C-alpha cells in the first residue's frame, strides 16, 4: 500500500470503497504543518496510498493583522497550495493527511482544516526552529492535540528532544519525536504517537 | 558530538489559549456566499447520483448553471466516491469554487454528500481507537 512512483494525479487502482456509491467510509484527517521546505510533502508521501495531490485555496489579503504581508496591496489575492495524501485504514475508515504551510498568513485555511481533525503534526527543522512557532500558537489557541516532529537534515547539529521541548516551551503532555520523513515506519510511528496523545486527551 | 548552538526560545502566547485566531475570509467566486446546508469539509465524500445522460433537464440556477463544463467534469469524476479535496485537486479547481459547485449540485439532487461519520468537532474515543489499530496494522 506504500506510495509507488506514479504520475501526479495518477491514483492507481481504485480502493473497493470508491466504487460502491451506496455508502461511504468514515473520513478523518490529520494536519501536517510547518515552515517552507521542512518536509511536509515528504511526510505525507511516505505513507499515502496515492501520490500526494495538490489543492489550492484563494484568499483575499486583508491588511489588518497580517504584518508579514504589508507589501501586498489591499484586496490582492494570493493562492495557497496544500498537499494531501490518503490512507485506507480499513474498508470503512479512510485517513487523510493534509500538509499545510505554517505561516500566520495561512491561518484562514486552518479554521476549515482543523474542524473535525484528529490532531496535528508540527514539523520542525532545528536550523529554523522559529518557523514552527506560529503553528504551535495556533494549535494551542484552538485546543487541537499536536505533536512536534523534528526532521534531521544531513550535516545539521542534533538536539535532544528535551532541548527542543524546552526551547518551544511545550507542556509535558505534548510529544516531541525525532523523525525521518522519508521513512514510512518513522512517519507511521509519529502518527501513532499523535493518535495516542489525542486519545489521552479525549473525554471518556 | 557536534557543537550545538542554543535553540531560539519561544514565548507562548498564553492569552491566546481558548481564543479563536483572527480570521481572514477565503475568497470565493460568489463573494463569500454560504448558502448550502451541506457539510462540505475537505475530507467529506461525495458521489454522483445519476449519469449526466439521464438527467431530465439541464442544471438551472446557481453557479453550476454558469459553469457547465466544470459541472460535467465534477459529475464524471464522481462516478467514484471522492473527497471534496480530491475533486479540487484532480480538476485543478480552487477549493472554494468546488465547495460552491458541489453545494449547488447537492441542492439539485445530482450529487450525494455523505455524512462525515461522526458528529461534533472532534473524533470520539471509539474512532480514535479504530484509527490507532488501523495505523498499527500498516
Ligand atoms: N534529511 C532529510 N531530508 C528530508 C526529510 N524530509 C524531507 N527531506 C527533504 O527536504 C526537502 C523538502 O521536502 P518537502 O517534503 O518538499 O518539504 P515541504 O515542507 O513540503 O516544502 P514546501 O511545500 O515547499 O514548503 C526534500 O528534498 C526532501 O527530500 C528528512 O526527514 N530528512
Ligand atoms: Mg510541500
Automatic annotation (TrEMBL), chain A:
Cited CDD domains: Ras_like_GTPase
Alphabetical list of SUPFAM superfamilies matching this protein: P-loop containing nucleoside triphosphate hydrolases (SSF52540)
Positions of region (Disordered): 1-22
Xref: InterPro entries: Gliding_Motility_GTPase, Gpn, P-loop_NTPase
Gene Ontology molecular function terms on file: GTP binding; hydrolase activity
Cytoplasm in keyword set: no
Pfam families the record matches: ATP_bind_1 (PF03029)
Keywords attached to this entry: GTP-binding, Hydrolase, Nucleotide-binding
The keyword Calcium is annotated on this UniProt entry: no
PANTHER family documented for this protein: ATP/GTP-BINDING PROTEIN-RELATED, GLIDING MOTILITY PROTEIN MGLA
Family: Belongs to the GPN-loop GTPase family.
Record-given protein name: ATP-binding protein
Organism this protein belongs to: Streptomyces netropsis (Streptoverticillium netropsis)
TrEMBL record, chain B:
Pfam families: DUF742
InterPro entries assigned: DUF742 (IPR007995)
Name by which UniProt lists this protein: DUF742 domain-containing protein
